Amino acid sequence: MADPLLEVRRLFKHFGGVVATDRLDLAVLEGRVHALIGPNGAGKTTLIAQICGEIAPDSGQILFAGRDITKLPGHARVALGLGRSFQITRIFRSLTVRDNIALAVQARSGSSMRFWRPVAAERALADDADAVLAELGMAASAGLAAGSLPHADQRRLEVALALACRPRLLLLDEPLAGMGAEDAQAMIGLIAQLKQRTTILMVEHDMNAVFRLADVISVLVGGAVIASGAPQAIRDDPEVRRAYLGEEETAAA
Predict the structure, then answer these.
(1) Whole-angstrom distance, CA of residue 100 vs CA of residue 164
(2) Where are the beta strands (DSSP E) in 42-142?
(3) 151: helix, coil or strand?
(4) Distance between CA atoms of 105 and 115, rounded to whole angstroms?
(5) 248 pLDDT exceeds 60?
(6) How far lies 173's CA from each of 141, 215, 253, in Å?
(7) Among 149, 153, 171, 166, which residue's Cα sits nearest to residue 85?
(8) Which of 251, 231, 186, 220 is nearest to 32 (CA)?
(9) 84 three-state secondary structure
């Protein structure tokens, strides 16, 4: 078996008396879509934040491409190939869509890091930004203020920001959050397209999306992984059904 692109070993994090990550082990193989599911409060977003370097674990290790990144700052992890979208959209609302992407390209390349004004003068940055927008079907929105976009397009833009950094591993934290059925289907199609070019670790509550997209699913409960495997194995696991899937089935009955 190939070595994991991302490996989490015995990760532990607590906030006061609350254990958010409980000696968690996780392995994400390159070329896969790996989904994290679990009830609210299971620790999914806290785990993603530790992988990105936003939150420091109390103990344990995080390895990326065989390198220990546990103590690296977030920007250094981005430079190594980690990209992320967020539960709540984080974009530069007053800048154009193109300038949002150009800033991400600029950060990746280290070019003219004097905030955003030099971007317009650097044709290569703008061309790179336009290529990302074209790939995501957003070329027509390039000149619009990012804050003027509908919610679904803002979510799409945030994925584009992560992609502009050319990640080896793309971390998606609830990419379908707040979307209606039509927009959710469009985002599922986009993620299906992206899985052809990059490894994805995805937190998502929409089980339809998870079972359509994921190659591997890990189930978190109480900050620990209780099961990990192929989608059908997870669907059939009695412990998973009791801890999580069964709750949804009961609620839907």
Answers:
(1) 10
(2) 59-64, 67-68, 82-85
(3) helix
(4) 12
(5) no
(6) 24, 17, 28
(7) 171
(8) 231
(9) strand
Q: What domain range is 48 assigned to?
A: 6-90+167-252
Residues in the chain: 253
Among 40-54, 59-73, 80-94, 141-155, the least confident range: 80-94
d(C-alpha 176, C-alpha 253), whole Å: 23
Closest CA to 197 of 20, 31, 3, 45: 31
CA angle at 50 for the pair 61 and 8, rounded to the nearest 5°: 35
Q: Find the CATH number of the domain harbouring 233.
A: 3.40.50.300
pLDDT in tens, 215-242: 999 999 999 999 999 999 998 998 888 7
Q: Count other C-beta atoms under 10 Å from residue 183's C-beta.
A: 17
d(CA 88, CA 200): 18
Q: What is the pTM of this model?
A: 0.85
Question: How much helix, strand and coil, in percent to the nearest 5, is found in the chain?
Answer: 45, 25, 30
Q: Which of 47, 44, 144, 140 is nearest to 91 (CA)?
A: 144
| Cβ contact 203:36 at 8 Å | yes
Q: How many structural domains does the chain have?
A: 1
Q: Is residue 113 part of a domain?
A: no
Amino acid (1-letter code) at residue 51: I
Query: Do 38 and 219 contact (CB within 8 A), yes or no?
Result: yes
